[in-house]
Amino acid sequence: MIFSLILNMKNTQHIKTICTHVGELEDKRFKGAVSPIYMSTSYQFDEVDVKRYPRYFNTPNQEYLSKKIAALEHAEAGLIFGSGMAAISTTFLAFLKAGDHIVLQNTLYGGTSNFIREEFPKYGIEFTFTKGLNISDFENAIQSNTKLIHIETPSNPLMTITDIKGVSDLAKSKGIITTIDNTFASPVNQNPIDFGIDIVIHSATKYLGGHSDICAGAVACSQEHIEKIWNVAKNLGGSLSDFMVWMLERSIKTLVVRVKEQNRNAKKLARYLDQHQDVSRVYYPGLKSHPDYKIAKKQMRGFGGMLSFELKDELDSLKFLKSLELIKPSMSLAGVESSMLLPSETSHALLSQQERDAVGICNNLIRFSVGIEDKKDLIKDIEQAIALVKASAVDFRL
Ligand code: PLP
Question: How high is the mean pLDDT in each 10-residue block of the chain (398 residues)?
């Protein structure tokens, strides 16, 4: 047997304990406190239960981290990938073939939309982006050949909220498999499998890694589904090196502590920005003014560390980002350090202006990944940057 990522039963421990201990590899020889790293790319092939190889996703470190991911997402099994996009593309291709159809929510991470639009026509796979996020929008997009429904909630970058149970109930009633990108919520704030979703996907580059130094992806679901995904994964080859697997296992030990602090900071920053005279709009699911606050409250334990906002028209967003001193104007998100970016220039730059306008991503939208610094220092930085922009005396430090 080549493949042995079986987690025999769902883990019933609490999330802090799962983060700290599940998926640890015991150091039997030296009794060290942390998992050893097995960097070998070649393992014995005969008289063994499992034929191990990094691209089979089953080296000791890969196998054990998969258990941690599965436990975190209340799933039977997991797989670790070399990036979030490797996890997303492999999962889609595991369940879709020429002539099949997938329904995707209209507000998705730009890389996912781009993958669909650029690659699926080559494979003869049909797709429909929903018109909105109501259950009726998903129902209207379903066709007789629909095999998958994919959602992302909260979504990147507008923090839209999709009713997870509503979508999974609809899909189940029609025998369609559901996938969710749970990157923004992280397993600390949301466990979609509890609401009936079949397959949970993460860009582990974000909260699971949490320190802006790991590029990885993860999938968690039933054993039956993971075997289908694995069959495609070993062909596509998007595995993660064992050193990075080890780094990710170590990082997840502090996931709860980090994310809870980011939740707290983001809520306070969202409230502060919401009442700021120079801010025209704030997008954060934890604000009562968010159109889907009630759904968010139903399915999330915390509202996450991500928010977006728009400065008032006369204030230049790019100048504002260049005026920040503490908050980093940088790509990616979810690190312990706060960062901001313009989605129109980064995560959603590959979409056309028309496509961005259609989903409401305006060019001056700022995405804010709130870190674990003291909120008072973050507010001070925002204040000084706004003051500089207002005075139009920006020292371009970038
Ligand atoms: N999903 C979301 C919500 C993201 O924000 C990203 C990246 O920003 C991805 C998936 C892709 O992940 P990766 O960059 O690890 O491939």
Answer: 48 91 94 96 95 97 98 98 98 98 95 95 98 97 98 95 98 98 98 98 98 98 98 98 98 98 98 97 97 97 98 92 96 95 87 86 95 98 96 58
Q: Enter the tokens of residue 328.
A: 């980093």
* Catalytic site residue from 206, 258, 267, 328: 206
User: Are the C-beta atoms of residues 87 and 239 closer than 8 Å to each other?
Assistant: no
Position 262 scores a pLDDT of: 98
Residue nearest atom 14 in ligand 1 by C-alpha distance: 84
Distance 72 CA to ligand 1 centre (A): 19
Per-residue pLDDT, 250: 97
Contact 128, 150 (CB under 8 A): no
Give the tokens for residue 397: 């430090």
**What are the φ and ψ backbone dihedral angles of 48, each rounded to 5 degrees?**
-130, 155
d(CA 85, CA 101): 19
Question: Residue 1: what pLDDT?
Answer: 41
d(CA 36, CA 129): 44
| Token code pair at residue 331 | 């790509």
Question: Does 100 sit in the ligand 1 pocket, CB within 6 Å?
Answer: no
What pLDDT sits at residue 7? 47
The Å distance, Cα 183 to ligand 1 centre, comes to 7
Residues pairing with 34 in the sheet: none
Distance from residue 203's CA to the centre of ligand 1 (Å): 5
Could you tell me which of 288, 248, 244, 327 has the C-alpha nearest to residue 68?
248
Q: Whose CA is nearest to atom 8 of ligand 1?
A: 332
